[in-house]
Specification:
Elements: H1 5-9, H2 18-40, H3 42-45, E1 51-53, H4 57-75, E2 82-83, E3 92-93, H5 101-106, H6 108-114, H7 116-143, H8 147-158, H9 161-166, H10 178-188, H11 195-233, H12 238-262, H13 264-272, H14 302-305, H15 324-341, H16 344-364, E4 368-371, E5 374-379, H17 382-385, H18 403-420, H19 426-440, E6 450-452, H20 458-461, E7 474-477, H21 487-497, E8 511-513, E9 520-522, H22 528-539, H23 547-560, E10 562-568, H24 580-591, E11 595-597, E12 600-604
Parallel strand pairs: 7-10
Antiparallel strand pairs: 1-6, 2-3, 4-5, 8-9, 10-12, 11-12
Helix pairs in contact: 2-7, 2-8, 4-6, 4-7, 4-21, 6-7, 7-8, 7-10, 8-18, 10-11, 11-12, 11-16, 12-13, 15-18, 15-19, 16-18, 22-24
């Protein structure tokens, strides 16, 4: 006679308390988020001081310099928002550049301890990790009941194609952890009786966000403004919005005052300070999102690895949408399923999310729509809005980054609703699981491409340079420093972070005045010396040198006050290889025979020429 099932199997184990299950879920999300952050940046972790991001080594060098300079400026009592160490003699207004001042100050001890390249990698990895955790926290504590739902939404947003694309060296755009905190504190302003404290907290957060990612803060503010307006005007929410309006407006006023006081000097520099400019040095037509890009797959993903990636972005760091057709279909299905079951209050939220996604999608198309790489004659709303102040400094393609959090929230809402619904037919559950898998698995990120970059010369690392550059003197590498030749700022970053002292350089990688119609440009306006060295480095041919050329070069040397010219044995070219021999022969034709000092060729410039 068979045993009784209850005796054979024993009593069913009791399910763990909800608090224990929630803590376990939190830990799993933390571990998965950390693993993905390290996975994406794993190429750099092999040797942070040697390896660089293949598709964007120039931006990596810039952010390393910003970390070294910002920490040095604060510890030495210098202005962290304006410098004469680059772009001699005019200097650079860092308030209109991406100065990441908060990061530079907070991580200054780490920069001095392990160097700017390793600190850059730590921040990049933490940005991705913190973005996942911040979104998970906002979703799980305020928007959905299911930890699984919050995990799906938070992890998707943090490792969405746009975020992984900007992980190619953009410390500002990968600081996505700021967005859920701004959302949380903005909606906290509705609380009655707490408008003063909540306004102060939001004002402080706005100041921090401005100093890390000003363009991202602008997009967030614009997105939240649209969402709140649409949500509050919905018939189901009007009464609630009207009741909360007085406290909300008081809190916003406090926010404006606090942020305005803290940002008064940076804002003055940005809009009225020296070396300011209007607009941007980038073409908004080129840097706009292709309509087909929304259904395309990103290069750094499983789909991209099997050959489904495209070249619809202007460069690999600007794949701002690239959701894939599967995710677009799933998003529409999720929206419809949520709408059908939603009460009027939830429909107000869904309506606001839908309008928000539509507005930012259309704006991301830029002044003129493109389809599969071909420009159309169809004008877009950005053609009008792009003429407005502040908006004219934004790249329209990046507006598509706002769509990813909308999709993430919809995915979280859907999973939450599926978890809370009564048991369904097994085929229905399987269909949903298959839909999520087909949509999300192809978008799983793959590691960033990296390679070894040319080492910083011993001439710099040993401090020998101090014997050839007077205090506050000007040294220049050749080719001269610009975005495609970042060595000058890499050398400066090493000297500053290793407490060797300061030397100034002409040129540099920055945004400054000098573009058409008073707009900005990347780097300084070219002069004869920089053009000659660039030509030699690119082509491998020595330019024709005439008496007029010599006079122009001597004028450049006096303008820049250069006292030492240095050529490394290996020059880092961010976009192409550099012919060092052609550069050396060109410099010899201009300055005479060089000295060999440590591992560099060196020319001393006579006082009369500078």
């Amino acid at each position: 006679m068979p045993s009784s099932p209850s005796l054979a199997t024993g009593p069913a184990p009791a399910s763990p308390p909800r608090a224990v299950r929630d803590r376990r879920a939190d830990l799993i999300v933390v571990l998965v988020a950390l693993a993905l952050a390290v996975w994406v940046t794993s190429g750099l972790w092999r040797d942070p001081n040697v390896r660089t991001i293949t598709v964007n080594s120039s931006d990596q060098a810039l952010f390393e310099w910003l970390l070294a300079f910002g920490g040095h400026a604060v510890t030495h009592g210098e202005n962290p928002l304006f410098t004469y160490l680059i772009n001699v003699p005019d200097g650079v207004n860092l308030a209109v550049n991406t100065s990441i001042t908060v990061y530079a100050v907070v991580f200054a001890p780490l920069t001095y301890l392990i160097g700017a390249p390793a600190t850059f990698l730590v921040i990049l990895t933490l940005n991705l990790f913190a973005t996942a955790l911040a979104w998970y926290w906002l979703l799980s504590r305020h928007l959905v009941r299911s930890r699984l739902a919050a995990g799906v939404g938070g992890l998707f947003i943090a490792y969405s194609p746009g975020m992984v694309s900007h992980a190619n060296a953009h410390l500002n755009w990968t600081a996505g952890w700021l967005v859920p905190l701004l959302i949380w504190r903005l909606f906290a302003l509705r609380r009655p009786g707490h408008w003063l404290r909540d306004g102060v907290i939001l004002g402080l957060l706005v100041a921090v966000a401005f100093s890390i990612a000003a363009e991202g803060l602008f997009f967030t503010a614009l997105a939240l403004g649209i969402f709140v307006a649409v949500w509050a005007l919905h018939p189901a929410r009007r009464a609630e919005a009207r009741a909360a309006l007085p406290d909300f407006l008081r809190g916003l006023a406090v926010t404006a005052v606090v942020a305005g006081v803290l940002l008064s000097y940076p804002l003055w520099l940005h809009f009225a300070g020296p070396q300011r400019f209007h607009g941007t040095g980038f073409d908004p037509v080129i840097h706009s999102e292709d309509i087909a890009a929304f259904a395309a797959f990103p290069r750094r993903s499983l789909a991209g690895e099997v050959g489904l990636g495209t070249s619809l972005a202007p460069n690999p760091t600007e794949e701002n949408s690239f959701f894939g057709i599967g995710l677009l279909v799933l998003t529409v299905v999720c929206f419809v399923a949520l709408w059908r079951r939603a009460d009027p209050g939830r429909r107000a939220t869904l309506w606001a999310l839908g309008i928000l996604a539509l507005v930012f999608t259309v704006l991301s198309f830029g002044p003129v729509a493109k389809l599969d790489g071909r420009r159309t004659d169809l004008p877009m709303p950005f053609d009008l809005l792009g003429q407005l102040p502040v908006v004219n400094a934004a790249l329209p393609a990046r507006l598509a980054l706002v769509v990813a959090p909308v999709i993430g929230v919809l995915l979280a809402y859907t999973v939450d609703q599926l978890r809370a619904a009564p048991p369904r037919h097994r085929s229905t559950e399987l269909a949903w699981a298959l839909g999520f898998a087909v949509a999300l698995l192809p978008l799983l990120p793959t590691p960033l491409l990296t390679h070894e970059r040319e080492p910083i010369p011993q001439f710099i690392t040993s401090g020998t340079w101090r014997q050839y550059v007077s205090p506050d003197g000007v040294l220049t590498p050749v080719p001269l420093t610009v975005d495609i030749y970042p060595d000058g700022q890499r050398w400066q970053a090493y000297a500053l972070s290793h407490r060797q002292g300061e030397f100034a350089i002409p040129g540099g990688f920055f945004l400054g005045p000098g573009g058409p119609d008073g707009r900005g440009r990347i780097g300084p306006v070219p002069r004869t010396l920089s053009a000659l060295m660039d030509q030699a480095g690119r082509t491998g041919l020595v330019p024709i040198i005439t008496d007029g050329t010599i006079r122009d070069v001597q004028s450049d040397l006096r303008h820049w006050r250069i006292e030492t010219v240095v050529l490394a044995d290996e020059v880092h070219g961010a976009k192409f290889g550099v012919d060092e021999d052609a550069v050396r022969r060109t410099a010899t034709a201009l300055f005479g025979d060089p000295q060999r000092v440590d591992d560099v060729w060196l020319w001393r410039i006579p006082l009369a020429d500078r």
